């Protein structure tokens, strides 16, 4: 198996650093994110390496906590999306017919809403908070992943090894679990990384609007929203979490591209 | 229909089978007869070759014979009995070797797992059967641990044959099983099929557009053209004195 290329490895390294950052915050490194450590709106300096916010809290532990919140929320949401999309995409792709039509039309309805509109709707129904953010990410990422998993499943279902299994008398769970799922797993993994970056963006947007994670808990979206208020007087408040957000999304996309190059089954390519 | 011999000893009989595909909206529906009043029988231990150009209905015939497609009209009998409603009841008694060596094996499964699968589906013990079957098709024991992308086209088709034979089926469909292989490899596989048939005594439906390959393995030949069987004859008779004008044209083109 080929290794990931250098760019993807770089992306992976960035992600690892962010995860270590987030874990460090749990372990208390960087200090208490809610503690007031100094004067208000101070630029970066000793004692507060990313500056202090409008209440005099050090930004460093807050950004660390924020990365953790955002990554955790998005990851859980993407796992839910992957499970739901894989199930419905594979069944729709293999079975075809009315079930396929039903799943695809439902997904298209979801697809027709911009992610952030969907997210606001969810927040209105469930009330602002982490659950709303999670549900929004799931709803925003399900359509694309389901469509792509279905497309992959349609192609795989027509291959001779699936037919052979059916001729041998294999039942549906075996055909889907042993033959279709492993051969669309690459698509699921690649789309999962893209969904993760969409998830981070949706969480950021939702919390920015005030419908997602609620202060004092920090998430990247919350921090950016708060920072926006003092953009002229204290640009570091928005710069820290903003840069981290961009780096996270970029890194995840780069890793996703590398994964796609490596995982998309060789046999779907015309040239080896 | 000439020379067809539907006897009590037939393993598979298609009796006046018609398959119609429809597509499009109700009022402007397009209808296509993939099979028109096809009657064929494969006797026990016999190989029936089915030839015809692309689109003549060969593959539909194989899908009907395997119970993957229900005929629009007509009857299919396996071992003298009508086809069961649930084709799982015949699991293990009929198998297939399909046309694409590249996609005949699941790329995520080791060769050994692929060969053992028909047994696992039936809940039968596997034991040493995988090694034994691989040996029968001329592959070493070590192949069991390999993945399909490490194998050549001919080797993959050998694995497909091992997988088809592992349940000791009464009937095997070879659907263009050698068409994608090099000529020298084709001969090896055809010889293998003949040897194994002598040993295991299975009946076979050998579908191909390659008249040369069919001549090599088939006892009788059926010729299909646009959904109909135009001629059925013993192989020797067919290649020396084809009765139907279309068969003559086919043979001239050889």
From TrEMBL, chain A:
Arranged from A to Z, the UniProt key words for this protein are: Cell membrane, Membrane, Transmembrane, Transmembrane helix, Transport
Q: Name one GO biological process term.
A: transmembrane transport
Q: Which compartment or compartments is the protein found in?
A: Cell membrane
Record-linked Gene3D superfamilies: MetI-like
Q: Which PROSITE patterns match?
A: ABC_TM1
Pfam families recorded for this chain?
BPD_transp_1
Domain (ABC transmembrane type-1) spans: 67-256
Q: Which InterPro entries match?
A: BP-dependent_transpt_permease, MetI-like, MetI-like_sf
Membrane topology classification: Multi-pass membrane protein
Q: Which residues cross the membrane?
A: 71-94, 106-125, 131-149, 236-256
- Protein origin, superkingdom: Bacteria
GO cellular component terms, A-Z: plasma membrane
Q: Which family does it belong to?
A: Belongs to the binding-protein-dependent transport system permease family.
Report what the protein is called.
Answer: ABC transporter permease
Q: Which organism is it from?
A: Nonomuraea deserti
Automatic annotation (TrEMBL), chain B:
What's a Pfam family this protein contains? Answer: ABC_tran
**GO molecular function annotations of the record:** ATP binding; ATP hydrolysis activity
**Superkingdom of the organism of origin:** Bacteria
Annotated InterPro entries: AAA+_ATPase (IPR003593), ABC_transp_ATP-bind (IPR050319), ABC_transporter-like_ATP-bd (IPR003439), ABC_transporter-like_CS (IPR017871), P-loop_NTPase (IPR027417)
- Give the UniProt record's GO annotations in the biological process aspect: transmembrane transport
Coiled-coil annotation reads none
Q: Which CDD domains match?
A: ABC_NikE_OppD_transporters
Please report the name of this protein according to its UniProt entry: ABC transporter ATP-binding protein
